[in-house]
Amino acid sequence: MDDQVIAAMARWPDVPAVRGWLSLSVRGQWRLHPCGRGWGAPDEEPGEAITSPRIVAFIGRNYQADDTGRWFFQNGPQRVYVRLDGAPWILNLDTDTQGRPRLRTHTGRDYGPVTRWWLDPEGRLYSGSGQGAGLVADRDLARVIDALRTAGGRPLDDWLERPEPAGITVRLASAGEGDIPTDAPLGLLATHDLEATLGFVRRP
């Protein structure tokens, strides 16, 4: 969190929190809802994309969660709760200096190690880590699936094609010589169990 934000919170500690003004899309784009009707209103606003790199970076630096899994942007002294259309972190596939795959969040942070993977009925891939729940962006989904390997080093094609796939353990195929590979279970997740299982609130 920025120093000036921390200072503003100390100076004005009782500013009420707001909802309905900010959302995060499934592709990791911040959207502003200018009339505060981002959710929970009969005339819910679709929102306007925030495109200023300076503002996007400011939101990203001051974005976090409370103890109940509600994510927010600390805008100076005011807490702005965020509607999450996918998950708290939207994940993209990047490569490290050795060309090995790694995950990065929509805010540009490294993500992981992943401790759990889930597939939902629509084929979306979610993850869990110490940073919180993530959703692999749709444009990178096929590449992430290709980069995942079972504990035996096999790709996921056989597992995904089973009529009733059982849980397995997988890892990103990124461990190099001297690295310690991180295995994580992969299972199926019902849509109605998403928030409770992953520990976040989509509409706080």
Describe the structure.
It holds the Pfam family DUF2944. This is DUF2946 family protein. Residues 175-180 have low confidence and may be disordered. 24% of the residues are buried. This protein is an alpha+beta fold and 204 residues long. It has helices at 3-11, 53-61, 138-147, 157-160, 194-198, and strands at residues 18-24, 30-32, 48-49, 63-65, 71-75, 78-84, 89-95, 101-105, 110-111, 116-119, 125-128, 134-136, 148-150, 168-172, 184-188. The radius of gyration is 18 Å and the shape is globular. It folds into two domains: 3-84, duf1285 like fold; 89-197, no CATH class.
Rg (C-alpha, Å): 18 Å
Task: Indicate the proportion of strand residues.
Answer: 25-35%
Distance between the termini: 21 Å
Tally of domains: 2
Assembly level:
single chain
Sheet with most strands: 9 strands, mixed
InterPro entries: DUF2944
Protein name: DUF2946 family protein
Pfam families: DUF2944
Top keywords for this entry?
about 200 residues, alpha+beta, duf1285 like fold, 2 domains, nine-stranded mixed beta sheet, six-stranded mixed beta sheet, 5 helices, 15 strands
Topology at a glance:
Elements: H1 3-11, E1 18-24, E2 30-32, E3 48-49, H2 53-61, E4 63-65, E5 71-75, E6 78-84, E7 89-95, E8 101-105, E9 110-111, E10 116-119, E11 125-128, E12 134-136, H3 138-147, E13 148-150, H4 157-160, E14 168-172, E15 184-188, H5 194-198
Parallel strand pairs: 1-6, 7-12, 10-15
Antiparallel strand pairs: 1-2, 2-3, 4-5, 5-6, 7-8, 8-9, 10-11, 11-12, 13-14, 14-15
